[in-house]
Amino acid sequence: MRTSKGVEWAVHTLLNLAWLGDGEPVSTAQLAAAHDLSVSYLNKQLQQLVKGGLLESVPGARGGFRLARPLEAMSMLDVVLAIEGDQPLFRCAEIRRCGTVGERVPTGGFRRPCAVNSAMGRAEEAWRKALAEENLADVKADAEAHAPALASQVRRGLGRD
Amino acid sequence: MRTSKGVEWAVHTLLNLAWLGDGEPVSTAQLAAAHDLSVSYLNKQLQQLVKGGLLESVPGARGGFRLARPLEAMSMLDVVLAIEGDQPLFRCAEIRRCGTVGERVPTGGFRRPCAVNSAMGRAEEAWRKALAEENLADVKADAEAHAPALASQVRRGLGRD
DNA sequence: GAAGAATTACTCGGATACTGCGTGTCCGAGTGTAACGGG
DNA sequence: CCCGTTACACTCGGACACGCAGTATCCGAGTAATTCTTC
Questions:
Q1: How much is the pLDDT for B109?
Q2: Is the four-CA dihedral A51, A53, A59, A64 of positive or negative sign?
Q3: Which domains does chain A have, with CATH numbers?
Q4: 102-131 in B: which are within 8 Å (CB) of A?
Q5: What is the distance, to the nearest Å, from the Cα of residue B34 to the centroid of all Cα atoms in its chain?
Q6: What's the predicted TM-score (pTM) here?
Q7: Within 13 Å and on the Cβ side, how many CA atoms surround B141?
Q8: How far apart are CA A83 and CA A53, in angstroms?
């Protein structure tokens, strides 16, 4: 079990767009070249970000992608949900109701929640809460703290200066 | 991204062994029949639990598996680690150091940690902490709270009474 | 009748196929840009 | 010189292959119980 590598690609791409500063759209080819990524596959991930409302796509010549809102209004959870979808980490198959010790639904009673599923759900909720508290602007600031030249490096790498 | 279904199988099997009470080993066939699971595949998962120190295996006729320690000393994290392994949810591929904006390692400098990886790591740590706090004995008690007849139901289903 | 050895039946354990999702790639639809011609 | 039209080049967007991890299965090694033989 591991997150798709598209998550890492998406976050770094969002950071690069933020460092670029201007609202000009950037093509997938440039964004991919920035980190030696597969152009087509990155494009697929960016489409997911558009569906998730994190990016805007500009069609036509001189088109590309740009941030839909400032990084301050984006969390890691937003990225993960956009790329991975909102499916839970733990999917309960309700095996408790099968086999020789299967818990039969009492007549007229409703299905009580599975204790295993509840416990896993609580842990997953902690994960999502922590992801929601990880602001993308903070991540960007953290990266700059150790490498102040990053912004200009991105502008140079994407041919802006 | 989702956890292996082996996690659900393992937890329910551990609960069944606890409800059974006696320290007698139970064969994989009986444990699988309890919830209509694949015998061979469940056996593979139980072997992982043995390697993780949660179960003991008894070979030979009238053998099987039994709990290695009481449920009070087991957490959901122990199960997840035994089944899934201790690999992190987010694996940093260090793409930040590649491509046109790749962060080159300064001469003589050490590699500072990736800000993206750090943020993901913090969230994952929250998940693991929550999993570690979910005691298996509590899960068992939670299940019993809504279905007091479960213990006897398991003993009957596994042919103990 | 009791003890010991051979046999048997049952168990775990790891090596071997299959499937679904993540990964990667390709080509077509759509649009903004630029060139070109006419007024 | 300015405007409208046409062609073009570039972009996104979704449809199409590939590979690997999770899933499922099978057969062999090993052990405890059982049976049989012998004292």
A1: 61
A2: negative
A3: 5-157 (1.10.10.10)
A4: 102-103, 112, 115-116, 118-120, 122-127, 129-131
A5: 19
A6: 0.93
A7: 7
A8: 12
